[in-house]
Amino acid sequence: MRYLVTGGAGFIGSNTVDELVSRGHSVVVLDDLSGGKDDNLAEIRNKITIIKGSITDIEVVRKAMHEAEYVLHLGARTSVPRSVKDPLETNRINIEGTLNVLVAAKEMKVKRVVFAASSSAYGETPTLPKVETMQPQPISPYGVTKYVGELYSQAFLKCYGLETVSLRYFNIFGPRQDPSSPYSGVLAKFCTAFLEDKQPVVFGDGEQTRDFTFVDNAVHANLLACEAPNVAGKVFNVGCGDRISLNQVLAALRKITGKPLEAKYEPPREGDIRDSQADISEARQFLGYDPQVGFEEGLRITFDWYRESQLKSAAREAAAKEAAAKEATAKEPAAKTER
Ligand code: UD1
User: Fold this and answer.
1) What confidence tens digit (pLDDT) does each residue in 47-90 have?
2) Is the CB of 77 under 6 A from ligand 1?
3) Which atom of ligand 1 is nearest to the CA of 183?
4) 73 FRET partner, CA 20 to 30 A, in 1, 25, 275, 328?
5) 299: in domain
6) Is 91 part of any domain?
7) What is the largest CA-CA distance in the chain?
8) Which residue has the least CA distance to atom 36 on ligand 1?
9) pLDDT of 239-293, one tens digit each?
10) Residues contacting 111, CB < 8 A, separation 6+
């Protein structure tokens, strides 16, 4: 099978591409590397086609989609606070970009588009857990764009017969989630804070809850959503069905690392929802989805991954310094002779 993964060099995208490749599929990645990294695909670079370009350019999208049977549309401008700061940019990438993907998919007659939707669509609906039949009430520009993506996906099924499935991810975390931006996901931030013995920053009182979901579970759902029968036009929650507060996350990290780090509490962020928890019965029933890795195990794997990658980059830096020093010494006699 041939798959196009938009945002395939990103966190969830590259983990999905790894799995597709390991199952022997042919994969094209479309990514402008604004959030994604070339490095995320380093180990499989020779096995896939990478097109550097943006989903906001429909010609590039058309080219990348050539002969694709399935499209996993994960390319997006993530982050709630970034959307609050720059709603136009989030709108352009998440709504116009998604529309480009859908238009090209309709033209190319792809079998199905799986759209990375978001639990942020629920907004401040008070009921927990969140069920797909609830009326979405997004409270951030980001949540609005993700919800509009779902509506467009459904309209394309109705108007053009294009099969689409939307997956409302609930706070996905795991290896390759970038910790370096102020807009990075909270678990990436917390793990690296513990590694570097820095105080983790909590926006609010830390009692807000999320259904933190290890990335393998999202990958599992992505692949199921491509092939499950009778799901066109549907929307599914992808989470674990639990609710964990940030203070509980910090306690778990103290346990894993043995470090008694205390958090620094700052005012809550605009656009933040308070609580989030998925009802995953629909995904279980229609997709055959079942969370593969629980929160604590996922957190351990993730923390170990950040530790390993820090060690690797420290080793790379040391090797580069040594090579530079050797080169400088090798040049020295020549420089002396010239004088
Ligand atoms: C996250 C995703 C979003 C996704 C949504 C639902 C990211 C960056 N955002 O949004 O793409 O659609 O889940 O799956 O992955 N916080 C701190 N300290 C920090 C960072 C964050 O206290 O250093 C707090 C935030 O204020 C918020 C909570 O942690 O209350 C979660 O924030 P974040 O990880 O940014 O995720 P969401 O906004 O829930």
Assistant:
1) 999 999 999 999 999 999 999 999 999 999 999 999 999 999 99
2) no
3) 8
4) 275
5) no
6) yes
7) 81
8) 185
9) 999 999 999 999 999 999 999 999 999 999 988 999 999 999 999 999 999 999 9
10) 69, 70, 163, 226
189 lines ligand 1 (CB under 6 A): yes
pLDDT surpasses 80 at 167: yes
Residue 331 lies in a domain: no
Question: Ligand 1 within 6 A of 263 CB?
Answer: no
Picking from 206, 171, 199, 200, the residue whose alpha carbon sits closest to that of residue 185 is 171
| Average pLDDT in the chain | 96
Quote the pTM value.
Answer: 0.95
pLDDT above 70 as % of the chain: 98
Classify burial at 69, counting beta carbons within 10 Å of its beta carbon; exposed 0-12, middle 13-18, buried 19 or more.
middle
Percent of the chain clearing pLDDT 90 (strictly above): 93
Q: Which amino acid is located at 241 in the chain? A: G
Query: Which atom, in ligand 1's list, is nearest to the CA of 187?
Result: 34
Dihedral of CA 45/48/51/55: which sign? Answer: negative
Of 238, 73, 85, 64, which Cα lies nearest the Cα of 163? 73
Task: Answer whether residue 180 is part of any domain.
Answer: no
Stretch (H or E) spanning 237: strand 235-238
Task: Provide the 8-state DSSP code for 64.
Answer: H
Structural domain tally of the chain? 1
Which CATH number does the domain housing residue 101 bear? 3.40.50.720
Distance CA 271, CA 315 (A): 40
For residue 45, the tally of other CB atoms under 10 A from its CB is 12
Give the distance from CA 76 to its chain's centroid: 9
Instruction: Give residue 201 CA to ligand 1 midpoint distance, Å.
Output: 12
User: Does 265 sit in the ligand 1 pocket, CB within 6 Å?
Assistant: no
Domain span at residue 108 reads 2-174+212-241+271-293
Q: How far apart are the first and last CA of the chain?
A: 65
pLDDT at 204: 98
Question: Which residues are designated catalytic?
Answer: 142
User: What would the two tokens of residue 97 be?
Assistant: 């970009």
Q: How far is the CA of 287 from the centre of ligand 1 (A)?
A: 26
Q: Does the Cβ of 140 fall within 6 Å of ligand 1?
A: no
